[in-house]
Amino acid sequence: MSKPLKQIHLAAHFPGVNNTTVWSDPEAGSHIEFSSFAHFARTAERARFDFLFLAEGLRLREQGGKIYDLDVVGRPDTFTVLAALAAVTDRLGLTGTINSTFNEPYEVARQFASLDHLSGGRAAWNVVTSWDAFTGENFRRGGFLPQEERYSRAKEFLATANELFDSWHGDEIVADQATGTFLSDAKAGAFVHTGRHFDIHGQFNVPRSPQGRPVIFQAGDSDEGREFAASSADAIFSRYATLKEGQAFYTDVKNRLAKYGRHHEELKILPAASFVLGATDAEAEELAREVRRRQVSGATAIKHLEFVWNRDLSAYDPDGPLPDIDPDPGEHTIARGRAQVRMYRDPLATAREWRELAAANKWSIRDLVIETGNRQNFVGSPATVARTINDYVQADAADGFILVPHITPTGLDVFADQVVPLLQEQGVFRTEYEGPTLRDHLGLAHPDHVPGQRAAS
């Protein structure tokens, strides 16, 4: 008996200041005006995507003491944008990255519970930790927490937030509708939490939301991050670009679920992926080469190399060979506030690997950055891209993908118009939303219906 086809989950990352974006394209628009966010969200919703995802920017990124060019117009607040999008969409999930290092559980739980109410059950929280003191300079706490402490705090932060979400149960509250007075002894929202990182008690002031709790995402790739996702998350982002790497990550993370009493379907694995479409595969390949050249200018290639080398490499020719000097493995002072730094945990090993690749392929610095900087790219005709996405999902390399177009805000339109219908024809992607909440879209149970997931009253 053949294995039933898995249903594909699709989401869209508003690219904004992401390096994927080609700002020189005539169609490129603002990444801060609300009309851009609204167009992008409405496109994702008409394509029946699961959710829209917004990253977080707590500080403008710097390099060489100068603000990075993509950040010069600013980075708007995630909650403000998602709340506004709740008013112009009906079913699309609304996912935002909110830091657990520089916030407090009560504040974040209140904001997400409010967003879940405003959106009718479509809120999701990507729980992240801060990794650098540079970002911490904007906050009282600073960036003093080492990695193991950051995850310890994040785990307790999420557990505390869940206690707050669960503290107001509708079946415990009886009120006189005429007078608005409580008729029972139950204290709505009462909570007490005493732990290593948080010692709080009081009353949570937002009623139980439509989803019970927002959907929880996690993005860490370290062993601690994978374990955190297996124990607590509903979905995890993946950065693996090949089928084999994707399958290895998928198997590893899914196999960790059992120790927490969870099943495979309770955690979705969703890599980010860019795409380039053409009338034919050859046309798409040619366009993809042009897109990558425009994404990685000579100056950008040098700046990217500085992430790893932790040195000023401005004197090097981007069309020449890689530096013969080794990276400085000390504290990062060149690239500040750049997420890419975290991807290269061993800069000396990365430099050796890159030199070998460059020598074998006769690549310049710019060539190397172009070739090694790709996420999982889907390049080809609509039929080819639809087939490739389905192949990855059916082969358990992913449960779906978070698409990152290279044009803001219209870059998602062509995928919605040309690829989604093909996936629908294959029976692997919805033609209509099955329910009103993001948990419905992702096939996740309401926390009140999952044993052990609701706090004791």
TrEMBL record:
It is an enzyme of class 1 (oxidoreductase). The keyword Transmembrane helix does not apply. Its EC number is 1.14.-.-. GO terms for molecular function: monooxygenase activity. NCBIfam families: FMN_nitrolo (TIGR03860). Belongs to the NtaA/SnaA/DszA monooxygenase family. This is NtaA/DmoA family FMN-dependent monooxygenase. It comes from Streptomyces cellulosae.
